[in-house]
Amino acid sequence: RRHGCSATNANANANASRVREQDDFMALAAAMGRGASTTSASTSRDATDASSTRGFRGDGVNDASSKRVSLRDVLDGASGPPRMFSPMAGRRRDHRADGGRRPLAVYLPGLDGTGFSASSQFDTIARAGFDLVALNIPVSDRSSVFELVDNVTAYLDARVAENDFNGESVNGAGSSDVYLIGESMGGMLALCVAASRPDLIKRLILVNPASSFDKSVWPTLGPALPSIPNELWNAVPFALAPVLIDPVRMARGMMDKMMETPSDDPLGSLVAGAEELMGLIPALGALSEIIPRETLAHRLEILREGCEYLNANDYERLTTINVPTLVVASENDNLIPSLTESSRLKAFLPNCKVEVLKGASHAALQEPGVDLMEIARRNGVLPRTADELAMTRDVKFDPPSRADLERARESLAGLRALTSPVFFSTRPDGKIVRGLDAVPIRQRGSRPILLVGNHQTLAPDLGFLIDQFIEEKGVCIRGLAHPVVARGGGGFGGDTDGDESNMPQSFDDMLRGALKGTPLEAALPRREPKPPRNNRAMTMGGLGSFTSFGAVPVSGMNFFRLMKQGETVLLFPGGVREAFKRKNELYELFWPSKPEFVRMAAKFDAIIVPFAAVGAEDSFDIVQDADDLLNGVFGESVRERANKMPKARVNDDFRDDEELFIQPVAVPKIPERFYFRFMAPIDLSDVDLDDEESVKAVYANVKNEVASGIEYLRAKRASDPFKDLAPRLLYERATSAQAPTFVP
Fold first, then answer.
1. What is the largest CA-CA distance in the chain?
2. Verdict on whether the full-model pTM lies above 0.85
3. In terms of pLDDT, which residue wins out, 654 or 62?
């Protein structure tokens, strides 16, 4: 009760035995964090129409048909099916201040099934703006995993129907704005729900999901637990305590929290912290009541069924779950292999992010300092508030989250230390300034901006270009990229549109192929399936997945859509021909003759900003270019593979083989410093689309500006006192600041 826990009890004079039993459960809730009210609404799988939802909502409203479920009901194993209840009943607002309905967060519990195991997170979930409900699976319930999935989807269907019936929307985005939060067994169950009804879910948040149960020791050891003698059963939770939690880490976290919190009574705070830690002991003991042996045996079967369902056919079902997903994995989970599982889910779920909790145990949500909503906010999972940086005008694009940016910048750190990128921009009067101040991002109003520049070979500079606009201008520039890059291909070596038949086979591949269909095939060890090709992120200049930063396949339709949205768009007219230059083509431009990008930009009254970049192409030598590879010993194989890749365009100005996606073989040299210059903006408001000569003149001007910028940077860098690597590294290590450069 010290933590705000209060067991609702109609009988104030309950006998001492009942009070003790409730206190055991309260100790469990207290050890897990802030407690919860238990007003609940019983659910039913056939309650799916709007007229039945008044008593089905499970949101704590005192409807005539709602049922109040006490903590004793949980311990005694209340009859009936699994039910949803509101942990925040009496404290939660049903609507936001602006009158809109709050998005729904549904918590699916772990093996205990109570719905209270994440109670320390409930307040922060509610404060994040959610209407929170949790699933309670009664001790006596014997539903299969599929019946549990039906139960959850029936509840969600009813909530959607109720919102539609009342004409309510959630955040203006429709009535199915549901965030499904699953912990351990609940994480596995959440994946099953998403596989069954992805239309009902907006986001998945999985904490140490037990979808890895079949890869742990528990399918072997678990069935033996219910056979433990009665006299030893109550000791099982204590024996498993080091597996479930890290008592030392938890104690340290509680003590740190007390030391950081000002108090007029330090001794009292210390005693309270010690009592909180000691509360773990009766809480662990209560687990033997919450999960009797028969219940444990049944829930282990639920885990077996769920993993079998999700992981069948080389994880094929996982690849169909398109719901944006955040997997939170504990580094020191000793119960199941959560860290390995997070990597597997990231590889097979089409839209998945991973956050690793350093040093955390399986029961991470109970550990001090773990705030699930802050983790979700960092990863861009929560609904964006009005005061958050938008970075885009495209409502269909989720810009990179704080965590995405942190990871991307970490991946860029090594290359940044070697190349120390420098940016300049040009005002309309011709004055050159340091940084991007002269690029008219904020001055444009609703007009789109088109950044047009030269494609340095292999594009190692692209990450810095994108990051600089986020850092200085708070905008995510949207790249028009080659289809192989934009869809997340396997790297500049290319992809084959999912067809790997032309890829070279390993000895293991050949052996398995030879034994396929023979009796010996069964003797081969099971091999982990390869993730889908479109889940293998294409990286650009160290920035991570290019698509996660807004790139789309270059096409007239995508160009049209981005211009119409008023986005800041990045275009390299030279395309793959310029990105994969031949030998002795340093900084040459290979642009098509047709001025189509000018026409599109003028149609939407865009502002074109030409730019030039140098440094990357001086940092390596091309040993074999595309022509060498096509004319070499394996030329036919190279051509056959390249022909299977999609082309960005059909270009009459170049030979067919010049538009093939063939990466040159290059060897690195001592890296040069990277320089960027954005030229003076070109306003298209006076361009007449019907005047062919006027359009061509603008196109020629843009190309000339890029070429002029390249010439300027190559000439001026000679006066940079820190153009060479060694003095630049020494300066930046000694001062922890970027080395100066030439004066423009």
1. 95
2. no
3. 654
